[in-house]
C-alpha cells in the first residue's frame, strides 16, 4: 500500500469540493473502483488550493487509471490546473 499526498490548484474550489462529496458519482466512488481511498483538503485562505491523501494498493493500476480518458475527463470537469499538480509518495528512509 502506497500513501500519496497530491496537491494542486483548481479554477473553482467549491466546484472541486462538490465533485468529492460522498455519494453516487463522486470522485470517491470513481477512485474506489481501483481500490483507492481518498481524504480531501482545501486551504482555508486560498480556496482554490486543494489536496488529497490517497491510499493506493496498486501503483501500476493507479498510474494506468490516471492516464485514462475517465481520469482526464474528471480533471477537466473539476477544472483542475494540471500543470500545478504535485505528488509526494511516502517513503521510509
Features:
alpha+beta, 4 helices, Alpha-Beta Plaits, DUF1330 domain-containing protein, globular, 4-stranded antiparallel β-sheet, 93 residues
Overview of the structural elements:
The protein has 93 residues and is an alpha+beta fold. The chain has a single domain, classed as Alpha-Beta Plaits (2-Layer Sandwich). Helix content is 32%, strand content 35%. It is built from four helices and four strands. It has helices spanning 13-19, 27-32, 59-66, 69-77; strands at 2-10, 37-42, 49-56, 80-89. The radius of gyration is 13 Å and the shape is globular.
Distance between the termini: 16 Å
User: Which whole number gives the mean pLDDT?
Assistant: 96
User: How is the CATH topology named?
Assistant: Alpha-Beta Plaits
Helix content class: 25-40%
In total, the number of strands is: 4
Structurally, the number of domains stands at 1
The CATH C-level class name: Alpha Beta
Amino acid at each position: 500500500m502506497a500513501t500519496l499526498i497530491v496537491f494542486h490548484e483548481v479554477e473553482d474550489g467549491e466546484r472541486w469540493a462538490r465533485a468529492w462529496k460522498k455519494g453516487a458519482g463522486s470522485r470517491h466512488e470513481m477512485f474506489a473502483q481501483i481500490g483507492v481511498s481518498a481524504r480531501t483538503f482545501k486551504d482555508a485562505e486560498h480556496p482554490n488550493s486543494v489536496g488529497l491523501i490517497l491510499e493506493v494498493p496498486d501503483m501500476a493500476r493507479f498510474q494506468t487509471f490516471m492516464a485514462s480518458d475517465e481520469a482526464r475527463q474528471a480533471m477537466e470537469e473539476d477544472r483542475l490546473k494540471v500543470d500545478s499538480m504535485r505528488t509526494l509518495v511516502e517513503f521510509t528512509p
